[in-house]
Predict the 3D structure of the following.
Amino acid sequence: MCGIVGYVGPKSALNFLLEGLYRLEYRGYDSAGVAIQEDGSIAIRKKTGRVGQLAQLCQEQPITGSYGIGHTRWATHGEPSDVNSHPHTGGNGEVVLVHNGVIENYSTLRNQLREGGYVFRTATDTEVVAHLVAHHLAEEVKMGADPTSVPTCVKAVEAALKRLKGTYGLGILFRDVPGLLIAA
Ligand code: GLU
């Protein structure tokens, strides 16, 4: 079973997230990753193997920033690999999320999203959720909503969740809304 940790606060997020992932190790996992908001973009570090290996990667390629999400994965869809590790990105990077669970209707949703021009880079069911939230965010914006407002992001997540069948714990960041972390 995998795990999710999130942090929004005054401190540097990275140490908090790694510490949280170490504490979740007992649940079992095959890969780990973090995403942290930094200067208007979201930096992602992810890797197969132990949390210690992720920590090593983060030492070589440090990220600052005071909010973010972390994940330990137990692969169900798509082999354990760096690319299939979470976090995953939706749209053009405006949505970044981690997921525990299984999306049973991912295949149908993936086909629909592909028809809408979304490009899939991983073999996971989770990437569908990331693109679906990005899609509903774009729909809100088409109707005149402000993409940088919290209610717009909440509505996009609610619309996406209504279309999912299966199980999910989610931690979601929005590139253009600093300080927002939605848990569902
Ligand atoms: N189904 C997702 C995957 O295979 C999440 C697995 C998990 O809960 O860690 O990436």
The first strand starts at residue 3 and ends at 8. The longest helix spans residues 126-142. DSSP finds five helices and eight strands in the chain. Residues 2, 73-78, 99-102, 124-126 surround glutamic acid (CB under 6 Å).
